[in-house]
């Protein structure tokens, strides 16, 4: 950990301005990801702007349907919220499938969206890694890749986005709301929020310097049955090998997104359109163009089988 | 006390305190956070500074440059100790890789520097300023590329061993002629101890005398080996390790934390504390080496084994030793024609060394899966097949009996309790919704090791009995069973006994390793108590041969006095150690178990989830059924890890274990562990020791993984012979869900 300075912001715009003002500054929310990375000097902010007191911790109904989730709503609170459980079950299920009770008590909605990859080489500063040290190379390519991406990756980086919550938000078509250092606001569709690595794997999302997430909004409830199926080697407290977030209607139509397979929550329109035709029909467009890295080719049949599981549960209901 | 004839009746047989399920006497200290663990011993010496260990970022080669200037002038930094400052430190008996000194890098994360600062954060921050430069040289990292490695015999140093090649009868001929045969290959991965408490030490010099407060399983080894590494006389070194947050063999030996704490304290001129950070533990310390094993079994149609061959390959650094995965196969089953061999490849991965049940744990993962496959080939129930091939004598030396061997009883008892008769022999046929369900069994086997062990027992005028020995409690319950032993021997209640452990100023004990701790350390206490009883009787003017100790009193010839009164004029002390004669040569001493597992496999995703586990153990007298049960359920949990998830992932290009944290190296969590049951069969083994006990801590692990893998096979019909049995290995071969 490098020495850093610290301040507590008292309004969203002031927080954004504070980060924009200080080179190397970052926000800190629950701290469950950034502090770990700072200890290993994977992140070396010079200044931390604490956003925990910004009063962005409410879940509000949006007139005309939908909810606005404050950026600082803790994962535990979000998963337990009655509206979320009732109308957006996929989101509740995804959250409780992640991390541990203690971590979810601390983790925030914005911080969770921005959690960084779990590629093991990213965590070892003696190893080349384009995401951590741009231009140094990628140790994972040709190395241990069982956890890593099968689709959407590049020759510069094959890391996955490791989270669960965002996969559910992707299937729900959430929108990320932000405020910029100049006070301007933006609404970024979740589909555009996380970026593919291309030749800049260090650039993971659409946020601009200093831009602060203030909320995530969910559109009006979709109905249907909600599923989040997370597959992993141990029963709890492990990142997904593959996860499936799905909303399925009684007629078999619906939507689906995958976690654990790509640098971002993975959703493809053509796959949604095929939902009535079974897991094979969905998996084909969803994973078209996949390029497994070696140890992780099993994720392709696993994704299809997990889809089949979810679809069979939907039928059984 | 020399133990050279089977034990007769003795005061332990009363079983007034010993043998009863007893809460840990150190439990309240642990649950209130007042049990002192090495890194938090703030009170033992003032002015402690913090050391941060830096590990090499290459697997093999030389460190060509380490720029200490920036680190030295960083805020709060007191000293930087560089491996380039000194020649390679002497290698102690138990270490294979150098712990520090010199430019040569032998393995990834070998320590290259220690930064000492006022705070941990300052030390860690400055460590990133060293910018090491290396000249890397190619290394050997792939065990599979060394199948023709030379035959090498050896011992685990922790209780199992074997010659490089051992033949009994004529294996080749018997195998060729056998009516039913199996010839299969199995692999087990590198595994990490992953104990909760990291290696940690506080070191303080007083002139040329050094004290280390550390976390170590073997105090006497530690004292000897650290003195050698530091080039000092052991007389000037004190080692203190009263509480240990798990070791599993990872803390049997001196590691970089002690060496560097001592060097750092010398350089900084004040006490220094060092803990290995979690990412360092996997590559800087030792691990259980991967194995590639080949097993051939030949049997007649009646199911009797006529030929058994077990060959194992493992790797280690130059001058290292083999993982003795064939050891149990010398003793577990009957069969006239046998072949055992071990090969050792030279690899440049971190040092392989003992981990809980070294040898037997990976050996049984293979052997007991092979036995399952063979039973199926014979169309015979796997419990019956094992019972049929039981032997009551050493199969290599038929004149040498087992002192006790209740493997058959373990299997029968377990089968009855588990409801084994409900198992469907045809795999892949039991469904519970989308889950494929199966049952598996395995035998468990671990040798019983005898080691000399000393203790000093003191009686004072308040009637308190204080036991002192350098024995360690690595979470196993040593404090409690030692107190039970002393209470039983002296006829007092448990709360009148004080136990002090882990200090090298106390008499040297067997230490905690090879599941020998409980039996040997309590036998040492027994011996010291025999001396103390004698002293007490004499002080009270009683006939020592007739003295009876009970209710805090000693009585003989119609006269009785309070123990406290015997010590009125000064403490009475018994100081002795147990030593063993040749009984271990005349009798094979081993412990046995049968493990039963029910597992379910998700028919869609292939995820394996355990449902029930049962261990039936026969392991001599169980000194404390409560702490023994804890040992076994912990071991079963470790077996679940070995079966289903634990694997150090080797980067074969870069030569290191990539998943070097607890997110990447998965061990079981609560949700993985279902209902666990443990049964101890009544047994007392007079050949083992005056306590008539053996060990259970490693037995509980031996065979578990195979029972799980066999249950998974029974569920799916897909045999996975490469551990761990992860879903990717059977996913596409699972039976169709109707
Ligand atoms: C052991 C462990 C296991 C885990 N397992 C899982 C799992 O299974 N599934 C899963 O999904 N997750 C898992 N996680 C990740 C966990 O969900 C994240 O650490 C957590 O959600 C991060 O939230 P936080 O508020 O603590 O973020 P922080 O650590 O505070 O911040 C993370 C990042 O977000 C930035 N940031 C925070 N708030 C804002 C804001 N309002 N606007 C802009 N930027 C912001 C910070 O600058 C930082 O870069 C695990 C974490 C750990 C430590
Ligand atoms: S996959 Fe990405 S994160 Fe992992 S080493 Fe390569 S560049 Fe770094």
UniProtKB/TrEMBL annotation, chain A:
Top-level taxon: Bacteria
Keyword RNA-binding (UniProt): no
Keyword hit for Flavoprotein: yes
Pfam annotation, one family: FAD_binding_5
Keywords from the named record: FAD, Flavoprotein
Stretches assigned to the FAD-binding PCMH-type domain: 1-223
PANTHER family tied to this protein: ALDEHYDE OXIDOREDUCTASE FAD-BINDING SUBUNIT PAOB (PTHR42659:SF5), XANTHINE DEHYDROGENASE SUBUNIT C-RELATED (PTHR42659)
Protein name (database record): Xanthine dehydrogenase family protein subunit M
The species this protein was found in: Rhizosaccharibacter radicis
From TrEMBL, chain B:
SMART domains on file: Ald_Xan_dh_C (SM01008)
Top-rank lineage group of the source organism: Bacteria
Cited Gene3D superfamilies: Aldehyde oxidase/xanthine dehydrogenase, a/b hammerhead, Aldehyde oxidase/xanthine dehydrogenase, molybdopterin binding domain
Aldehyde oxidase/xanthine dehydrogenase a/b hammerhead domain: residues covered: 32-138
Transmembrane regions: none
Protein's name in the database: Xanthine dehydrogenase family protein molybdopterin-binding subunit
Lineage: Bacteria, Pseudomonadati, Pseudomonadota, Alphaproteobacteria, Acetobacterales
């Amino acid at each position: 950990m490098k020495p850093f300075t610290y301040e507590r912001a008292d309004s969203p715009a002031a927080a954004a301005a504070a980060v924009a003002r200080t080179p190397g500054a970052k926000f800190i929310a629950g701290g469950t990801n950034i502090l770990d990375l700072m200890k290993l000097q994977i992140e070396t902010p010079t200044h931390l702007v604490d956003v925990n007191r910004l009063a962005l911790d409410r879940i509000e109904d949006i007139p005309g349907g939908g909810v606005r989730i404050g950026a600082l709503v803790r994962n535990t609170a979000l998963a337990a919220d009655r509206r979320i459980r009732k109308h957006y079950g996929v989101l509740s299920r995804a959250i409780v499938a992640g991390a541990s009770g203690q971590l979810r008590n601390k983790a925030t909605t914005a911080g969770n969206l921005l959690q960084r990859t779990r590629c093991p080489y990213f965590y070892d500063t003696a190893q080349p890694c384009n995401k951590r040290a741009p231009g140094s190379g990628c140790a994972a390519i040709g190395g241990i890749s069982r956890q890593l991406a099968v689709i959407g990756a590049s020759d510069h980086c094959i890391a996955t986005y490791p989270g669960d919550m965002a996969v559910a938000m992707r299937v729900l078509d959430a929108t990320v709301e932000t405020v910029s250092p100049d006070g301007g606001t933006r609404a970024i569709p979740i589909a555009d929020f996380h970026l593919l690595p291309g030749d800049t794997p260090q650039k993971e999302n659409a946020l601009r310097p200093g831009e602060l997430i203030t909320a995530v909004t969910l559109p009006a409830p979709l109905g249907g049955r909600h599923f989040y199926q997370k597959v992993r080697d141990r029963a709890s407290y492990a990142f997904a090998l593959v996860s499936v977030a799905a909303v399925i209607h009684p007629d078999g139509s619906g939507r689906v997104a995958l976690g654990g397979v790509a640098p971002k929550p993975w959703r493809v329109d053509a796959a949604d359109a095929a939902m009535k035709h079974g897991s094979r029909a969905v998996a084909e467009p969803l994973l078209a163009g996949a390029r497994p890295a070696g140890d992780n080719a099993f994720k392709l049949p696993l994704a299809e089988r997990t889809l089949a599981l979810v679809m069979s549960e939907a039928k059984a209901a | 006390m020399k133990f050279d004839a089977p034990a007769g009746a003795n005061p332990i047989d009363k079983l007034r305190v010993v043998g009863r399920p007893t809460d840990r006497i150190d439990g309240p200290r642990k649950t209130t956070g007042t049990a002192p663990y090495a890194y938090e011993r703030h009170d033992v010496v003032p002015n402690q500074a913090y050391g941060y260990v830096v590990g090499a970022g290459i697997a093999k080669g030389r460190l060509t440059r380490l720029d200490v200037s920036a680190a030295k002038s960083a805020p709060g930094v007191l000293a930087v100790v560089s491996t380039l400052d000194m020649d390679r430190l002497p290698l102690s008996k138990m270490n294979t890789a150098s712990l520090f000194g010199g430019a040569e890098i032998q393995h990834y994360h070998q320590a290259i520097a220690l930064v000492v600062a006022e705070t941990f954060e300052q030390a860690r921050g400055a460590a990133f300023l060293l910018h090491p430069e290396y000249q890397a040289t190619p290394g050997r990292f792939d065990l599979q590329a060394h199948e023709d490695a030379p035959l090498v015999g050896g011992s685990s140093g922790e209780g199992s061993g074997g010659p490089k090649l051992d033949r009994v009868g004529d294996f080749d001929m018997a195998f060729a002629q056998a009516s039913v045969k199996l010839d299969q290959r199995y692999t087990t991965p590198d595994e990490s101890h992953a104990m909760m408490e990291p290696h940690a030490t506080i070191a303080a010099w007083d002139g040329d005398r050094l004290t280390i407060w550390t976390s170590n399983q073997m105090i006497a080894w530690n004292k000897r080996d650290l003195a050698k590494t530091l080039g000092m006389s052991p007389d000037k070194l004190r080692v203190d390790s009263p509480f240990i947050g798990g070791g599993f063999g990872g803390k049997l030996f001196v590691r970089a934390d002690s060496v560097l704490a001592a060097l750092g304290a010398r350089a900084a001129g004040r006490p220094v504390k060092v803990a290995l950070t979690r990412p360092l533990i996997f590559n800087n310390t030792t691990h259980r080496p991967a194995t590639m094993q080949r097993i051939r079994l030949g049997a007649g149609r009646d199911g009797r084994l006529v030929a058994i061959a077990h060959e194992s390959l493992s790797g280690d650094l130059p001058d290292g030793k083999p993982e003795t995965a064939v050891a149990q196969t010398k003793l577990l089953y009957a069969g006239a024609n046998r072949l055992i061999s071990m090969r050792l490849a030279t690899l440049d991965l971190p040092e392989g060394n003992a981990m809980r049940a070294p040898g037997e744990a990976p050996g049984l993962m293979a052997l007991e899966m092979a036995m399952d496959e063979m039973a199926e080939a014979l169309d015979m129930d796997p419990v019956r097949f094992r019972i049929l091939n039981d032997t009551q004598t050493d199969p290599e030396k038929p004149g040498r009996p087992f002192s006790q061997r209740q493997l058959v009883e373990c299997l029968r008892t377990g089968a009855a309790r588990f409801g084994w008769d409900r198992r469907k022999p045809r795999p892949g046929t039991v469904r519970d919704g989308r889950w494929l369900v199966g049952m598996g069994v395995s035998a468990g086997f671990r040798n019983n090791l005898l080691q000399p062990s000393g203790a000093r027992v003191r009686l004072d005028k308040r009637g308190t009995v204080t036991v002192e020995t350098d024995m360690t409690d690595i979470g196993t319950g040593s404090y409690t069973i030692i107190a039970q032993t002393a209470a039983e021997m002296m006829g007092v209640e448990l709360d009148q006994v004080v136990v002090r452990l882990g200090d090298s100023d106390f008499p040297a004990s067997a230490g905690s390793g090879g599941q020998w701790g409980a039996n040997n350390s309590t036998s040492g206490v027994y011996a010291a108590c025999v001396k103390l009883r004698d002293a007490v009787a004499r002080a009270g003017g009683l006939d020592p041969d007739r003295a009876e100790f009970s209710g805090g009193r000693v009585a003989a010839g119609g006269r009785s006095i309070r123990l406290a009164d015997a010590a009125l004029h000064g403490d009475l002390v018994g100081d002795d150690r147990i030593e063993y004669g040749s009984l271990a040569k005349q009798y094979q001493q081993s412990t046995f178990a049968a493990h039963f597992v029910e597992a379910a496999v998700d028919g869609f995703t292939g995820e394996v989830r355990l449902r029930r586990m049962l261990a039936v153990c026969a392991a001599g007298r169980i000194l404390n059924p409560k702490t023994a049960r804890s040992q076994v359920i912990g071991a079963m949990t470790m077996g679940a890890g070995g079966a289903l998830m634990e694997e150090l992932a080797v980067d074969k290009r870069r030569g290191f274990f990539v998943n070097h944290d607890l997110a990447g190296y998965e061990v079981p969590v609560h949700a993985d562990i279902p209902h666990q049951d443990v049964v101890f069969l009544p047994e007392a083994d007079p050949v083992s020791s005056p306590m008539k006990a053996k060990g259970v801590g490693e037995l509980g692990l031996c065979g578990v993984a195979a029972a799980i893998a066999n249950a998974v096979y029974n569920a799916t019909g897909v045999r996975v012979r490469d551990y761990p049995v992860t879903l990717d290995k059977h996913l596409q071969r699972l039976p169709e869900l109707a």
